[in-house]
Amino acid sequence: DDFCHRLPKVELHAHLNTSYSMKFLRELARHNGIAEEDFVQDLCLKEAKPLDEGFALFVRLHQIFKTEEAIYRLTCSVIKEFAEDNVKYLELRSTPKMIPETGMTRDLYMQTMVRAVKDCEKEGLDITVRLLVSIDRRHGVEVARIAVDLADKLMQSTQGLVLGVDFSGDPKVGDATDFIPVFLDAAKRGLKLSLHLAEIPLYEETKNVLQACCRSCTMRIGHGTFLHRYDLGKGHEEMEDIVLQWKIPIEACVTSNILSKTVDCPGTHHFHYWHSKQHPVILCTDGKGAFGCSLTDEYSKVAKEFGFGKRDLLAYALSTVDSIFEGDQVKQRLRETMRVFGQKES
Ligand code: 5GP
Fold it and tell me: What digits encode the pLDDT tens for the residues 241-268?
């Protein structure tokens, strides 16, 4: 555990609204003059619940984080906590929200996150943070277009601090196929894509999106739980073949998947399947607050389950750098950090 904590890591799949810590929630309650215990109750999934119940929790969270101040404080605390966990590079994602009651606009929401990232940079925290603008599939294609416009505008105005879009939200709502033109448009503008796909067995939309986007988009897959041939059986080989051929990295969130009941236990998690094929698969937290895990926990779990020693872990951490959305300069810097760490440890 201690080695996994010290190990320099990258976190590529973290939703802002589910990445709070209990400590932060308690502080926020005190700050707002609310009884702490009532406030924090049930805000962390301690036992496995169907995916739907997770989504009910997200709605509750959105009632909490709805002012500019709350978003700013949450973003700063999430960045600091990841830095304390020795995450050296973080791609943080969130759905821009319009909340008339607090005067929040989608633009202000993302600008507030940008301000928090810049203030953390000024403080000299040892972590590089980039942002992704989330598209919630429940809100439909028109809102998705607004999110892409916003991401594009911010990519320009922040010189790349915002570097892509995420596609998430309840997979049981709508059809990802409808969003393909939006994804292609985003990629054309230079935005990178992280798409929640095959989180549940949705073969048709997953195949459609992969076929349409694999050639022209820089992309990663969020979860991808029901992607591989082993699970799908005959007739579903196309998806795996595309993923392998285009080396599309998969963001693997072990604890989140177990608590959402889409995977039984660490031993059956698809991480192992892809890793043993030497396909890029990156351990991530998804929501370290909602799922009560740190990135260190995720590394420890996998190390224990699959017998990774220190060398394996270091080699693995190094391999995750290839899948970040930032360019070569940042990649080289991260590799150097890991190399120096490895030397010190040996
Ligand atoms: P936010 O975007 O508000 O910062 O983070 C919460 C939102 O992220 C949720 O409302 C949902 O749209 C998305 N999200 C968080 N976790 C998951 C997940 O495990 N699966 C999917 N599909 N979406 C998620």
Answer: 999 999 999 999 999 999 999 999 999 9
pLDDT band at 62 (very low <50, low <70, confident <90, very high): confident
* Contact of 162 with 133, CB cutoff 8 Å: yes
β-sheet bridge partners, residue 165: 133, 193
Ligand 1 binding residues, C-beta < 6 A: 15-18, 58, 94-95, 134, 136, 168-169, 171, 196, 199, 256, 286-287
Is 91 catalytic? The answer is no
Nearest alpha-carbon partner for 271 in 256, 285, 286, 282: 282
Side-chain half-sphere CA neighbours of 52 within 13 A: 2
CATH of the domain at 300: 3.20.20.140
The mean per-residue pLDDT over the stretch 164-186 comes to 98
Candidate list 11, 199, 240, 326, residue with the active-site label: 199
Q: How far apart are CA 191 and CA 144, in angstroms?
A: 14
Q: How far is the CA of 169 from the centre of ligand 1 (A)?
A: 5
Tell me: the pLDDT tens digits for 66-117?
Answer: 999 999 999 999 999 999 999 999 999 999 999 999 999 999 999 999 999 9
Distance CA 103, CA 170 (A): 26
Which residue's entry shows tokens 């890793």?
275
Q: What's the 136 CA to ligand 1 centre distance in angstroms?
A: 8
Structurally, the chain folds into a number of domains equal to 1
CB 258 within 8 A of CB 266: yes
Residue written as token pair 């049930």:
42
Range of the domain at 115: 2-345
